[in-house]
Amino acid sequence: MSETASTARAPAALLPSLAPLLHEWLPRRRWFAGKGEPVTGFTLVSATELLPPGAAGPGLLHLLVRVRQPGADVPPAPPGDCYQLLLGVCDTLPPRLAPALVGRATRGPLAGRTVYEALQDPRLASLLLERLRSPGAAGPLSFHRAAAVPGGLPLRVLDAEQSNTSLVYGDAYILKVFRRIHPGANPDLELPLALARSGCPRVPAPVAWYEAGSGPDGSTLGVLQPYLRGSRDGWRLALDALAAGRDFAPEAHALGRATAEVHTALARALPTAALTRRRARELAVAMSRRLDAAARAVPALVPYVPGLRAAFEAVAALAGDGARHVQRVHGDLHLGQVLRTPDGEWSVIDFEGEPAKPLAERRRPQPPVRDVAGMLRSFDYAAHSHHPRRPGWAERCREAYCSGYADASGRDPRADGALLRAYETDKAVYEVVYEARHRPDWLRVPMAAVRRLASPPDADPVPPSSGRALSGSPRSSPDRLD
Predict the structure, then answer these.
(1) What's the pLDDT at 457?
(2) What does the alpha-carbon distance between residue 461 and residue 47 come to, in Å, rounded to a whole number?
(3) What is the pTM for the complete model shown?
(4) Which of 226, 259, 286 is the last residue of a domain?
């Protein structure tokens, strides 16, 4: 182990210095999952000194910190959430880094030192790339590389709101630093690696990554992938098409083909299984429970519960005849998770799944139509975010997307009508709760879908074609609840 990557001495001794600062700073982070509940304490899982502070510059601390909140660590509740922090330590913080300030320690081994968010400091964030360029261990951390990475690349931090922190190096690579850490391989590393081995060109292949621990209890901490310079995400492209009064069906068709290619490659690379009757019932029960909880939280749902539940009951009645299968899927597919490259090809990114769900659930095989349903809901959100409305725009996108999927896979997702409707219903119910809590002005979007989905399948009403533009940033659609 090199001197600049030694494990911090007596990690527990850092808590007196850091706990008062983290108590104020951590709950204000966009990626902190425990908002609304007080923080009652911290446990330092690991502390690694990647660079000791000195006269020549700041130090860099890597921490895994478990946060205690009411209900955590009390059976059967899981232990508190674990977060990855990279903190700079210096005597005086330069004015340009003032927004990165965590605080000034008043006690413990860091007393008198200033602590700040290291990923906002180009020097320290570049050191993280250097570690990825040189595979090896640093205390409990291990760094891995699948291909050579050049050094000396300029850095910028992406400012889009998300559950992780993304750094772009030289417009050539993007490093996703996971913030909320779970034991086990993160799907955002696991699935792109599997797709790279299968030769699927639709997903950028991981170039390097780092983790804590090893084996089943090891945790993925960050993944470096090629940065698709000049690409634009599907959400922005859809909004541009709406603003120009242009049909988006050709792009949706191509996107359907890309989705099917990814699903086919995942089925080749990783195990699949038949959707058994028991598994179908389990899916239906879980969806019904989420519906009941949502109706308690949002009374406007109550009149539609019987109709919505019918979609789940149809899944429970499916026969386990081997005609349907489960496999690894994206898990959180929508227009914000796809990029169109300058040559017009679609790429799929962000395989982490829904971060709010347990990692084991995100890694569980699912019917492929789950991803299809997520994209269908995304077309609906894009259409409702624009004023004046473009009647039929979302419906044409939905049809084209499913047709493109069928052309590439040989199976039309609409043939699995019961599953597709159930997953779309489940997603719309989730959206209702989110919008009611966070953006009431957007609540009418999922409620329009609820009204449609609560009707018998052969009597689906066309969503209303009028309404004012929605407030808020389109990029932060509910699809981005991550």
Answers:
(1) 78
(2) 57
(3) 0.88
(4) 226
Q: Which two tokens stand for residue 86?
A: 């990279």
Per-residue confidence (pLDDT) for residue 465, from 0 to 100: 32
Tell me what the mean pLDDT of segment 189-206 comes to.
Answer: 96
DSSP per-residue string spanning 342-382: TTS-EEE--TT--TTS-HHHHTS-B-THHHHHHHHHHHHHH
User: Domain range holding 32?
Assistant: 3-226
Q: Which of 375, 371, 350, 356 is nearest to 192 (CA)?
A: 350
Residue 306, Cβ density class (10 Å: 0-12 exposed, 13-18 middle, ≥19 buried): exposed
Q: Are residues 158 and 299 in the same domain?
A: no
- As given in the structure block, the two tokens for residue 360 are 């084991």
Task: Kindly state the tokens that stand for 241.
Answer: 């098409």
Instruction: Measure the CA–CA gap between 403 and 410, rounded to whole angstroms.
Output: 10
- Local structure of residue 13 (DSSP, 8 states): G
Q: CATH no. for residue 371? A: 3.90.1200.10
Strand order in the sheet with 173-177: 136-138, 141-145, 208-212, 219-226, 173-177, 165-169, 155-157
For 384, 388, 463, the CA distances from 470, given in Å and listed in that order, are 8, 11, 16
